[in-house]
Amino acid sequence: MLFADSRAHFFRPLTGKYRAQVVDCLGMFYQRLYGALADYSRSFSRDQVIEIFEEAIARSPVFDDDEQDAFSTTPRTQREQASWVLGLLLQHGWLEDPMDEATMQKTYAFSRHGRLFTQPMVDAAGSRFRTRHRNTRNTRNALKSFLDRGEVYDLLDAYEYSERIVADFSDVIAELDERRRQLVREIESQQVVQRASDEFFDFMEKRFMPDIAIRLSADSVEKYRDEIGELIERVKRKRKEFKAQAERELRRAAPELVTDPYRSVLFMILDGIEQRMHNASAVMLPALRQALNGFTRRADIIMRQLSYSGGPGHDRLRQLMQRLRRADDSQREAALQRAGAALASLSAGLPDIDTLRLLAARRPRVVNRAIEEAADHDIETRRRLFVQAALDLAFTFSSRKQRDYVVAALSEGHRIHSQNLPVRDARELLMSAHAIEIGSLAADGFAFRVTPTRQRVKTDYFEATDEFTIELITGPDNVA
Predict the structure, then answer these.
(1) What is the DSSP secondary-structure string of 383-419?
(2) pLDDT (tens digit, 9 = 90+) per residue, 321-348?
(3) Counting CB atoms within 10 angstroms of each CB, which of 17, 360, 429, 435 has the fewest?
(4) What is the rounded distance in angstroms from the CA atom of residue 249 to the CA atom of residue 238?
(5) 120 and 13: one domain?
(6) With helix as H, strand as E and coil as C, how does 229-246 read?
(7) Distance between CA atoms of residues 158 and 137, nearest Å
(8) Cα separation of 247 and 298, whole Å?
(9) In this structure, are 10 and 90 located in the same domain?
(10) Which of 94, 124, 154 marks a domain boundary?
(11) Is residue 318 part of a domain?
(12) Which residues contact 210 (CB under 8 A, 6 or more apart)?
């Protein structure tokens, strides 16, 4: 449980006027522990943690909240503030201070929950580099490695990479929507066309080209979907010994995936990868294209509007309004009368070619209103149809009835020979003749095993027939 022991008020350090300082302290300490410049050979003492926090506090803002809560403290020095933040994080379970057995001194590190919740805050700051557009190729490569070497960890890697494909699409779509809203907000607050253009092209060069363009071309899920589907089919067509070994290792390596003891974990992973590739190709990729189209179209509209409003025509209009403001009432009235007379006349002009759009003609819906007269069959035709339907019904039986017939014949046992199946009417004779088809039926962890004895026997109805044994088996390994 998250809110237990010292974590009863786990998120309290992230409230109040010093919440930005706490987040920056956590982020900088996380970088020193797990970042690219981390020194994994030493632990952090209290003085070292205080120095890291002092550096973060020096460049962190303080929010002037109106409410006076328990964390609105009196002004302190940066070292006192760092010591207070450290105590706050220790108190609420973000950090822990275990005793170093070698030096018998306290060392400071993240708790498990503190590290898990700090990582997304560091990722949101954009300080970590991620090759998010390679997950499709990673899924394909991991499946190939599993086929070649049979390592189940490669299959688990492919399963994890396929999950990230849909998540990365969602992240990019959300980022595009946020960029579009941010562009609109900045234009509303400050109508500067040059700044809007610079930010748009900066995004297209630094974000679109290295990531989204690769996602839509070199790493497109449509490009690798068929290849990944073929790899999945090759795994499913592997020998039974290969799949049984993989099933046992998967149940040992990832017991949390075993939700049903009679359901194959191997086939569940393969079906999950295939379903995620279908969702990424059929749902998320069109949504990404639509979001990108909406972003570029909105940016184009805004920059066009700003260009028109900031052009020479806008300056002439402003000069005219200033002249009207300085004029007296009689001059203003005369100018408005002349403008009204000019606007009242008919003005004809050519349309703007750029605004014309040719729409495809809609094909009219064709409805067949002809009425056909029902054929009137004679008595011989109706008799022939009736006899044909009766014969088809007499020689037809469902797989469920055949399964119930074999189960009743087994009674309390688990094995029976084909010539010992009971025959009490014509339908049971047909089902006994097709008894070997029962081997293709399986449900809920149960199946029938049909084994030929390589002997021919004589029965009351056949001069010679092949002999089989029918056995009821259970268990996921046998069913597979």
Answers:
(1) HHHHHHHHHHHHT---HHHHHHHHHHHHTT-SEEEGG
(2) 888 888 888 888 888 888 888 777 666 6
(3) 360
(4) 16
(5) yes
(6) HHHHHHHHCCCHHHHHHH
(7) 10
(8) 51
(9) yes
(10) 124
(11) no
(12) none
Over the Cα atoms of the chain, what is R_g?
A: 38
What percent of the chain stands above pLDDT 90?
1
pLDDT tens profile 202-252: 766 666 666 666 666 655 677 788 888 889 998 888 888 898 999 989 888
Q: Do residues 230 and 86 share a domain?
A: no
- Alpha helices in 204-356, H assignment, sequence order: 213-216, 221-236, 240-253, 265-279, 285-309, 312-326, 329-344
Which residue in this structure is represented by tokens 């059929």? 282
Task: Indicate which CATH number applies to the domain containing 97.
Answer: 1.10.10.10
Range of the domain at 24: 5-124
CA-CA-CA-CA torsion sign (194, 197, 203, 206): negative
Distance of alpha carbon 132 from alpha carbon 174, whole angstroms: 14
Considering the chain, what is the average pLDDT of its residues? Answer: 76
What pTM was computed for the model? 0.47
Question: Residue 468 and residue 453: Cα distance in Å, rounded?
Answer: 6
| Element of type H or E holding 187 | helix 152-189
Q: Where are the beta strands (DSSP E) in 72-144?
A: 95-96, 109-110
Q: Is the pLDDT of residue 104 over 50?
A: yes
Last residue of a domain, one of 124, 157, 183: 124
